[in-house]
Amino acid sequence: MSEKKTQQLKISLQTSRLSLKDLTIADAAALFQYRSLPEVTRFQGFSPASEEEAVRFIEEDICHVFGQPDTWFQLGIFLREEKTLVGDLGIHFLPGESTVEIGVTVAPRFQGRGIANEAVVCVVNFLFDTLHKSKVTASVDPENQKSMALMNGIGFRLEGIYEKAVLFRGEWADDAVYEMTAEEWQKRTKHNL
Question: pTM higher than 0.85, yes or no?
């Protein structure tokens, strides 16, 4: 994708229940509410201590130009009917053109409803079918059983669990790396039709 096209691309993805779109400052309060909960911060690098930190995250920490190499672009996950922010999904555009990393967070009170699954499948479809990426990866704390089950359930392949591989809050932590290639996704999609 050329830089000019990348800057013009506005992201808004839809599923039957969800709308995935750019986070704005108007979403900061809702983002703070779930991202500051202990059950969420346990596994997340970003855990705001105040609504102001959530505003700074949206304004300064995430990239607002979709597709910029070596940046994170954060999509809000909204219930379509209620227009309620229930989570967020980050897309990390790794250096080079072909591989991206994703990470998803859903507010605890909305977990167990298939929202994360629906959002990830929608975004992975978009990354492979529209952006023509060759590989999508996800980095998961091996103690986060819900995220491990999510990745396995969608069909991501566990590439490996690496001991003391990521620096998390000043300490080295284990990392479960999942991968899906475009070819694997196409086979999975055709199989599920």
Answer: yes
Report the top-level CATH class of 3-191: alpha beta
Question: Residue 180 pairs with which residues in a beta bridge?
Answer: 136
Distance CA 72, CA 123 (A): 14
Closest of 147, 119, 114 to residue 42, by C-alpha: 147
10 Å CB burial of residue 94 (0-12, 13-18, 19+) is middle
pLDDT digits (tens, 9 = 90+) for 123-174: 999 999 999 999 999 999 999 999 999 999 999 999 999 999 888 878 888 9
Question: What are the sequence ranges of the domains in the chain?
Answer: 3-191
Name the phi and psi angles at 130, rounded to 5. -100, -45
State how far the Cα of 103 lies from the Cα of 133, in Å rounded to an integer: 16
Residue-wise burial string across 58-87, b where 16 or more C-beta atoms lie within 10 A, e elsewhere: beeebbeebbeeeebbbbbbbbeeeeebbb
